[in-house]
Amino acid sequence: MLGDDVSDKQLLAAHVAGTPHAFATLLRRHSDHLWQTALRTSYCRDDAADALQDALLSAHRTAASFRAESEVRSWLHAIVVNACLDRIRRNKARRAVAIVPETMPEAIDARDYYSEWELAVVVEQALFTLPDEQRLALVMVEMEGRSVAETALALGVAEGTIKSRCARARARLQERLNFFRDQGNRK
Hints:
By secondary structure, the chain is an all-alpha fold. Helices cover 65% and strands 0% of the residues. It contains eight helices and no strands. The protein has helices spanning 8-17, 22-41, 45-61, 72-93, 113-127, 132-143, 148-155, 159-176.
């Protein structure tokens, strides 16, 4: 029922009657025209987009009041123009400035210290779930930057023991910190 052979008036009537997707089909037919109308009537793209959204919501809600004395496209056009003019009037009353990257001040410090602190706490908690000998070997090699030979000498064990302790510690940490692989859990 929602094909190209259905008229705009029939689609609007179907929307009023509760047919799913009828209004969306109608908007797809006229979206380019309505967007161009909003752009020509508004002072900037952001205002045009906001006004068009307001207009489409208004048309969706008030579709039952369409009297069919004009074409649906003309009715939608008028709603978009009126929404743009309303936005222009509102903007004159309270001037809004669009924030775009070019107008934003430079950040003083781009680092997110809270996130870094939070990450350090999570890693520290995970480290303290390791057995002492694994944690000590891993900290000396990975965090303090000591060589395997230096660590083995300092702890009085063989180099192979340090390597295996570090490998086991890394595997356990990977299990405990695996949730960081999810993109949403990282910066």
